[in-house]
Amino acid sequence: MRKTSAKKKILLPDPRFGNTTVTRFVNNLMFDGKKTTAFRLFYTALDNISEKVQDEEALVVFEKALENVMPHVEVRSKRIGGATFQIPHPVREDRRISLGMKWMIAAARKRNEKTMDARLSAELMAAYKEEGTAYKKKQDVHRMAEANKAFSHFRF
Prior knowledge:
Blueprint: H1 20-29, H2 35-52, H3 58-69, E1 73-80, E2 83-90, H4 93-110, H5 116-128, H6 133-147
Antiparallel strand pairs: 1-2
Helix pairs in contact: 1-2, 2-3, 2-5, 3-4, 3-5, 4-5, 4-6
């Protein structure tokens, strides 16, 4: 293990909304260091959402979608007496956000729409309505933790 914990990187807020969560999402979305392209994709996706949802602001839809996808518990493997057990653990806030973003981006990349901004906006809308692949992933993780809660006394 490390002697000192890693320093938290301070993120600059994004230019349009002044939100650091958006910057963090775009950093996960980015390929090959092309941050401008990632920002353009994200903002286009939010514009598509704002056209579809009239009563709610696009950034609010994004934040609600992210909240719907973030897991509260997860399972971690622990080897005890030759057997490996899946032990449920609560998820730290920072990791919850990270997992939610990664699941949403992965689900968007696997969708069948023509462009990435269309895929991303569709996945964000699905997560906002509590459906879609990323939301299903969260439900599966929660179900796995619920099934293995008998082993929670092995928590480390």
